[in-house]
Amino acid sequence: MDGKGSVCSGDVGSGGMGSASMLASVFARLARGEVEPGPLVDVAPATEQGAGTGVETGEKAVDVGEVGGARSAPSTRKTRSVRRQHWSVPMHPPGVVRVVPAALCPRPAAADSPQAADASQAADASQAADASQAADAPQVADTPQAVVAPQVPQVPQTDEGEVDSPRSSRPVKITLHELPPEALPSALLDMSKARNQKFDALLSAPIIDLEALRALAWSGVPAVLRPQVWALLLGYAPSRADRRVGVLARKRREYVDAANTLLEAPFGSVEDAIMTQIRKDLPRTEQSLAIFRAERIQSALERILFTWAVRNPASGYVQGMNDLAATLFVTFLVPQLAIAVNDPHHQTALLLQLEDLSELNEAQLALVEADSYWCFSKMLDSIHDNFIVNLPGIYRNLDKLERLLGAMNPRLASHLAESGISMMLFAFRWMTCFLVREFPLPLAVRLWDTYVAESAFNDFHVYVCGALLLHFVDDLLEASAEELIMFLQDLPTATWTETDIEELLSKAYVAHSLYASKVGP
Amino acid sequence: MSDEDVACRYLFRVVIVGDSGVGKSNLLTRFTSAAFSHDTKSTIGVDFSDKTLTVQGEKVKAQIWDTAGQERYRGITQHYYRGATGALVVYDISSADSFDNAEFWLKEVRKHSSQEIVILLVGNKSDLEERREVETAEAQAFAEEHQVSFLETSALDNNNVSEAFTMCIEEIYRRKVAAGASSSDSDDDDDTPAPAKSKLEPSQTIKVTSTAPDEQAQAQEKQCKC
Description:
CATH class of chain B: Alpha Beta
Number of helices of chain A: 21
Shape of chain A: globular
Keywords (chain B): GTP-binding, Lipoprotein, Membrane, Nucleotide-binding, Prenylation
Number of strands of chain B: 8
Largest sheet of chain A: 2 strands, parallel
Strand order of the largest sheet of chain B: 3-4-2-5-6-7
Order of helices and strands of chain B: EEHEEHEHHEHEHE
Oligomer: heterodimer
Order of helices and strands of chain A: HEHHHEHHHHHHHHHHHHHHHHH
Strand order of the largest sheet of chain A: 1-2
Number of domains of chain B: 1
Number of domains of chain A: 2
Shape of chain B: globular
Strand content of chain B: 15-25%
Helix content of chain A: 40-55%
Number of strands of chain A: 2
CATH architecture of chain B: 3-Layer(aba) Sandwich
Family (chain B): Belongs to the small GTPase superfamily. Rab family.
Largest sheet of chain B: 6 strands, mixed
Main location (chain B): membrane
Subcellular location (chain B): Endomembrane system
InterPro entries (chain B): P-loop_NTPase, Rab_GTPases_membrane_traffic, Small_GTP-bd, Small_GTPase
Helix content of chain B: 25-40%
Distance between the termini of chain A: 26 Å
Strand content of chain A: under 5%
CATH superfamily of chain B: P-loop containing nucleotide triphosphate hydrolases
Radius of gyration of chain A: 24 Å
Distance between the termini of chain B: 37 Å
């Protein structure tokens, strides 16, 4: 493991997918601020009707009604009192017009009906509410721009005056524009490094050799390439270059449509419960990092988690998912932040502490959000057992860890047992959050390079947990019961570096080689 | 790992339960570390801390288990109720919903604890007076109806926090020790994940490593009708 894929240093750059080199210069100009990003809609609610100007840039209508809709929304259900804001998603910078095949942006024939339904709900609500709300609803309901000019809000900006819900100003709805261009990461990659050349060569192939990419990524991925590499290895981005752009454009649109549909529909008790819990957790997710204190970022994470949870009722939202989503999100965000502040050598640790995110445009954030959603979804597919009722995946992993520890170090295993410390006492969170809570976030991201490279997220993780215990074996063997658990629930890892993580991964690899047959599946 | 060993004669296990986000973890941190963090993350599963107090001249160690509030984790958190001798049922005075669920938590603790358990109702975040949704009198009446003690606290302002824990622990002491309780009420230790046996027999001596002074040691007697 040569560990060239530094998290805390090195280049970061654009993080889109694909290899359309002709777009690189455009994107570079975008990064330098020489061109304006795509048409953006101010997030201020209730004034957005006027923001429809500039909609013309490669704009596709947003259908908020049916694409990706996970449930119907009877108009008789209670109306949420959230002030909805629209979030524009330019898919291209101006001057880059990419024709999106109609097939990739399906428009249901009955596109108007959901909007009509929304409008009627809004109208109903507005009758009981104040006049300004009433004024909003018909405008949206009747305007044909709601179909052809999607920057015009599709939903009335109501609810300011409603008092029947604790929700104040969110969720923020997305308005979909064209997706940003596919970036050319290699343009920002330090090609003097042989390892980066290898990544570039692999990623430039017409059909990417995923196994070779896994092998390379196992030892760490440069931050600038993480979005691409993770999207490929998690099965979100197609390995075939000729399909990639189209598929990703479609998936991003699908996400935005689904998120909007769910956010617009009246909430039932299930949705209320999910949103309430998410909103309890996001304000306490990685708050030591400035970016996670930003409302835009929290809104994006809120949409990701809510959309996923509503579409996956077997688990819904479970605490800890916020940590997983944040880890993926930051991976996709860092290269875009580096572009936004126009400093390819900016360090991740500094980017994460950016207080002012105004340079990060809505198109970039939308790209990050949509890609994060799909990678979150792919990841959760493989670990869904960890979050369904009774958490069988967690308990299976705890059992495996116990067997592994018994094989790796019987003395430590018996010391823990004699002290009454079960795996569940300290490793429950390790299994749930994949060690995100145990390391500084950039190091967790590096750790996850290897998890992503391993085909199954859950399996190798157990061996990393075993190696982690062994790393502290001297401390643990000396500790009493209380000391053990206090130590294990607050590991002294704040000063760890990537080198420490890579040593840990090496030991885990050895442990896997030696004990996998004993530990079992 | 410690520079001070204190012999304790008694070990009491206390669980903190209540809805997600009411401030359970911050209550614990305030009590055991005299600190408040604005960066407290949601509890996944169960967290642990301990503190040594002096009750009626005797060293008593409280093992405190801080539980996740979300329903999906109830299976794991229930596990910790069994050997508990005390419980803080926490709600947030600025959240009527969290108070509405207090009854659920009371029943939950009583249902799963393996012995008579001392319960204290705690209305946390008393610093949020301007956003109060639960009146003190209402909570007081609820506590009386359910025969538990009640305090409002603020982990942020450090108001009543040590009083709440102390009140609970002193009452446990009164019931279990002063009353000469037998030591056979914790025979379920195989099932409970506590790091040390929670037997109440005075003969059990446990090395503890608390470096915090026992400022609660001389806490005045409080009537605890739980």
